[in-house]
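Sharing a chain and its predicted structure for anyone who wants a worked example. Both blocks are below, sequence first, tokens second.
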Amino acid sequence: MSLSDLLEAEFLNTYIKTGNILMISDGRPGVDNFYTLKDGSLRLELNKESYESCGLNGTPVRDGGRKHIKSRYAVEIDLQSSSMLHGKKGFERVRWAFTNVLLDAVTWLFYDFHDQNEKDGTQSIEAIAPSRKPIAAHHPIVKTCAPKTTLRERVVQPYITIKSAEMAAMLEAKSIELHEWLGLNVLGSPRIQEDDSVDPYLCRYAVPDDGPIIVSGVVTMQWSGLIPASWIRQLLVELIGHYLKHEKRCNNPWFALSSHAFRTEAVNWQDGYTILRAPTGDTVEKAHGTALETVQPDLVKSTKEEYLLWEFSQVSNGRS
């Protein structure tokens, strides 16, 4: 599917003018020509040759290379604007660029918000790709984001607690430790199993021991795909509701929700975040990490619940 296909009257009116879709093209930001569409705004990241040939207005963006050489440009086009109509000068200028310069067909990830299930945010195959939909002309491959559920027994857990006296640096260090431990859970690593006996010469990892060590089962659920923020928000609401309903049945209950983003910029992109519901706590505090690379924890408390949030992003002065 090429960029010019986005401007076809049926596709433009159905999905962009009156609808709402999310699209990400294949390609590597900072290397290839790369496109995203969100809330009707089309962003083109182009190399210098393509940018100078297409005749569209844009701004230089960093590509992780030499700072003072402008080799990559970003062009923002609001396709929901009233000026983006067939026959108007601005629209015809964009269409010329798409039909004469940016000709290559690319593979896209596509999500239609209007076809999602109102209850759980999912999309059915029947809703996405019936023959009457404009996207059907491009022969989409429909993927279902079904959860992968794993139960691990006898997992060694760190002592998960948040104290009001902790400063930003301490929260940052704790966030890094917890993020590493959660990652090992997702990977199914034997390093956090109670019966693990790896030679320390081969692996020096140890579960953080700044408190009582707990051994219990851990359930992980994973979804992979182009998932909108609204669906993740609803998942968090469901998790909190399930936690409050069953917290008295468990010893030292907790949960963590992690989201990892598609890379859409060469440098300074937000790689993802984790929200952790701590078992106990009575703090009203907010703290920020100070490292260039990535951990920025926030400690947030409501009347009864306490959460720790941290984000990960690329360092601002180098390549990934």
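Comments welcome. The radius of gyration is 23 Å.
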